[in-house]
Amino acid sequence: DLARKAYVSIRKFHPNMPIIIIDGSDPQNPCSFYVKTLVSDKTKVISLGFNIGHGKGMHMGISQVKTKYALIFDSDIEMLKTPISQMLEMMEEGTFGVGTIVKTGFDGINYGLRSHHEKTGPILYLHPQFQLININKYKKFPPYIHHGAPCLSTMLDMHKRGLSDKILINFPSLETFVKHRGRGTREVINLRGKEMMATIAFITRVHPRRPEMLKICIESIKAQTSENYVHILHRDDKTEKGYGRFLANKSFAKISPINARYVMAIDDDDMIIDSDFVKVFKKVVDKNDPEIVFFKGHISSAIYPAPTYWAKPPVRAQIGGSCFAVRLDVWKKHIHEFGKECCGDFHFINACYRDTRKRIWLDRIVSKTQKKAGFGKGEDTHA
């Protein structure tokens, strides 16, 4: 469905533009069947039968291009209105590419999320979700190859040559033209040819007045060294101010389906600071099959749960919503407890704790608040 939305939205504005689709899905996957129906004189489909990775897939598509410029876009985007003519106007003779420019560390992780970033400083990174590039300029740098950060080798070489700020152009407010769901196509992952549920789902309630914090939250999750996860962005109201406290808590019960074995809430004003979390978490749950996994979070200026409350039943105001993950069946059974007027996260995990026996305490600091914690304030006031 995501691939269909991406294709249809592009064709709505550009019915005659040549499109090259690199299909890395399993031959029995519905996506593979769908893209094969798109083959025409305007649409070329290269079906591989297996996932070669984001970067290699991008490079394969670029190698097929016969025009001066190529528009690269992910399969989970939706074009709301076309920015292409404006992007072309921004292209100068020496420009490599136009799109969303972000700062990352030399490791490809969003700059500032790792302590060692301060030693090396940031690099400019042309985001792969939607970018217009000059083919000849692309050929002068190492190709797109990585999976988690597909453009990293290219951007690193560009940085070392001192060219980044000269040949990369940021397109302002691209999100008003193109909607990007962020790893939506990873909702059901493929492992050794067999589809299975992801290990963990990160669920993020989206507030309309803090897009910059949401961006940091998304990038922090994308920095995971394992892709065995789903990231679900959720907002079901239409207000400009966002949820009140009660509705924000109650909204969790509306999220379905969740195609993962475990569920963790990570609001848009929080972020993940442990890039190996999913990898380590998977090893723990595969071995023990716990109903709840507790871990630590950096909330404001303190670590929660504090040593006094570690490995003990949850205590009100001493644990945050991003300090635990629960098995999907436990989530479904008790998620209505999140609908309390105040401290919904405590009421939820307290109910889960009392109803379960298999619990694991994972001694890692996994998450961090981006600003001072709300401590019970509604979503409409904490923006």
Provide structural commentary.
By secondary structure, the chain is α/β, with parallel strands linked by helices. It has two domains: 2-176, Spore Coat Polysaccharide Biosynthesis Protein SpsA, Chain A (Alpha-Beta Complex); 182-369, Spore Coat Polysaccharide Biosynthesis Protein SpsA, Chain A (Alpha-Beta Complex). 27% of the residues lie in helices and 26% in strands. It is built from 13 helices and 17 strands. The protein has helices at 2-13, 30-36, 54-63, 84-90, 117-120, 135-138, 152-160, 164-167, 211-222, 245-250, 277-288, 328-334, 344-354; strands at residues 19-23, 43-47, 69-73, 77-79, 97-104, 123-134, 168-170, 178-180, 188-191, 194-205, 229-234, 260-265, 270-272, 292-299, 302-304, 324-327, 359-369. The strands form four sheets. Strands 9, 10, 11, 12, 13, 14, 15, 16 and 17 form a nine-stranded mixed sheet that branches. It has a four-stranded mixed sheet with strand order 3-6-5-7. Strands 1-2 form a two-stranded parallel ribbon. Strand 9 and strand 10 form a beta hairpin. The longest helix has 12 residues, at 2-13. It is globular. Mean pLDDT is 86; it is low at 183-195 and 375-383.
Question: What attributes does this structure have?
Answer:
26% strand; Spore Coat Polysaccharide Biosynthesis Protein SpsA, Chain A; 9-stranded mixed sheet; Nucleotide-diphossugar_trans; 17 strands; 2 domains; Glycosyltransferase 2-like domain-containing protein; 383 residues; Glyco_trans_2-like
